[in-house]
Prior knowledge:
Elements: H1 3-11, E1 16-21, H2 26-39, E2 43-49, H3 56-59, E3 68-76, E4 95-103, H4 108-118, E5 122-127, H5 130-139, E6 145-147, H6 151-154, H7 157-166, H8 171-180, H9 188-204, H10 209-213, H11 218-235, E7 241-246, H12 247-250, E8 269-275, H13 278-285, H14 291-302, H15 308-326, H16 333-349, H17 357-368, H18 373-376, H19 378-389, H20 404-415, E9 425-429, H21 435-450, E10 470-471, E11 486-490, H22 495-502, H23 510-524, H24 529-541, H25 545-561, H26 565-580, H27 590-607, H28 616-635, H29 643-654, H30 661-673, H31 679-690, H32 694-697, H33 700-710, H34 713-716, H35 719-731, H36 734-748, H37 753-766, H38 781-802
Parallel strand pairs: 1-7, 2-5, 2-7, 4-6
Antiparallel strand pairs: 3-4, 3-8, 9-11, 10-11
Amino acid sequence: MTPAETVEKILDDKRVIWIPIKHYSPACAVHVRKIIREAAPAAVLVEGPDDATDLIQHIVNPATRPPITVLSSYVDQRNVFGQNGILSTSESVPARYRGWWPLTPYSPEYIALLTGAEVGAELKFIDVPLKAAIPFHHVATSQPSQVVTDRLLAENAYFEALRIRQRRRSFEEFWAASFEVGGVSVPSDDFRRAALTFAWCTRNVWGDEEASFAGDGTLLREAHMRWHIDKTLKAHKGEKIAVVTGAFHTVALPWTKKKRAKAKADRYTQTLLCTHSYRALSALYGMNRLPGWGDTVWEEIEAGEEEPYNAAALRLSIEIMRAARAEGLAVSTADSVGAHKVAHNLAVLRRNREITQDDLLDAVQMSYVKGDLAREGVGITRATRAVMVGTKMGRVAPEAGQAPLLRSFYVDCKKLRLDVSGAAKNVRCDLHKQEKHRLKSAFLHQCTFLGIPLFGRLPDRNWRSESSHYMGPDLVTGAGMHLITETWAIRWTEEVDDRLVELSDRGPTVARAAEATLWERIKAVDDDASEATKLLLRCGQMMLVDLFMDALDTVDKTIVLDTSFDHLVAALTDFVVLHQYRDTVATEGHQRMVLTILTVFQRCCLRVPSIKNVADEDCESALDRLQTLVRIALSFEAVPLDRQLLVEKIREMVADPDGQPAIRGAGMGVLYAFGATREAVVVRELNSYLLGSPERVRQAGKFLEGLFAASKNVMMGSPRLIRAIDQVIRRLEWHTFKLILPDLRRAFTQFIPTEIDQISMRVSEEIGIDSRPSADAPIPDALVRLGAAADGRVAAVLAEWLA
Length: 803
């Protein structure tokens, strides 16, 4: 059959009214309503997951206001689809799958259900449930979320040829020009005929349909839809039914053989009706979906406007002008008038019967941006997007209930006295005094961890910029540890609900969702003890008591596997912090934690020799970790740490004369501080550099830098060391001295000014200046001679250089 003959046969069906649609099309929604009202079918079947059919009663409830969404989720605890460890962080963490079916006031599917209820029809969703689509939309594409799209209509050779011929930039632009603008007023049969013809052509250029669509789940879905259609026809013998599906499916369904998809629901499957927002809808689709445009067009249609797209463009151009002014941009009323005229002229030039979304966007850019788009157009782009996306938030009838997480969140906020009105509030938590404050802090940390946007901004102390929403001790990053209390900036927005809906498959409460998310991250840590203990700190900070011991078990295993000195010392530091804050964060098994600290400390000591040959670029970090380990060894008082083991391993580290000089110097400083070596030994090690080969001499500054970093007392209390440095430096060749001077200067930056004064007094004694000169006394002759000699050498070098 020719395309025209096929389409006429579909339109002439005596039992089924086939209604082809494009998702989120106001024009399609208009014709869906007209057709169902005129035909009053016995049943209206709509593309959507059939396990959500029970939710239709709440979708059509007058108390429900879109945007709303059917959200299906599946947690693959048994690894049915073999993606645990591929789509999740590890094999022990279940992959999570989600499917979104958003409905807006202008969605043809929503209008079909609403109008079907109006005429008393049976209402059904007929597409496969999420679980049946997972092998095609999730496993095959490695995407954990599925959304409704018109991809099949757009991604084919027929449309591409048509797009080029019509000089359209995208499928959305083509559809708007060909079906939306002017399409509202055409007869419904003519609109259906045009949509079916286009869909038939896009589908049949694929060639072998069986090979083309079996792999992406299209044939499975259509066979399942046909199974529902045949079942409904049998239930309503002699009556007409309406089938509302994407146009790409509509042209195939009349000839499809029925076959029900196998997708047995279990306790890990969840399908909910949730509130949604235009911001969330746009986030799902990106710039391909600007719901504020469709919503405004629909309002104009409902108001009886003869040219709804032109009217919507005028309204939105004015709103964009106001939004731009709110951004502080210089956009005048004349600019807005000009933008509307440009949009109209673009529509005429492009042969569009009314202004399309693309015409408006191009006109706003051309009229409002005065200068370079990349530099001057940022504010306009932001204002335009805000208006074109819209801020509408949906509502679900109370009878439908709420996602447990959503309900629990607001119960917790009320119990903890957190303002969710949208007003900006600052909340202070004193963890050391009040249990209620600890619970509130834990809840707020859980919200932060889960990305729930409950927060505003705290002003920075210098009032020149803004900092984050939190000020207080942060156990995880180590910032603000000098602070005693926490201060949080709270400001609820509609986006809170969107995020809670996204997280609804992770648990019935915020605490359980945080627990599930944190456990996934902990299980994903392989052999990085530092990363594991950071997560354990978060566990305590969020007061996830039920998870703490299991998390500690996992961290213990990670510590055994990790051989990195850097990681192990970082982990030890975190454990010490956790132990210090044990009264203000929720932990269990303090004695067990102390045993872990003993174990980590021992492993740190055993790994000390591994840093003896660290590269120059990693030397500073290694020195810092070594100093941290020594500090913990000296300051931790809960149980005695094995300092003798630390001393033995440091001795082993410094025994290699070819080791990293700074590390060897630090090791000698620690041994001196612990009383494990004598001053003479330190001097001998220094002399091995200062009196060695030219290469060794150049390493002396690094040795001193490490020595002073670990123990300044070795210099402050050792005249012999000062004398050794002075005597060797006196004998150095000028060229060699210049080479080591930067390292020497860096080494002495470890000392504070008063300590430098003490060292200078001792050096003065060594070079023959017995008393500290007065500021008013004449400069001693010895110092004058030294200064003159230094000046002479500098002058000679400069003369040579200038020559």
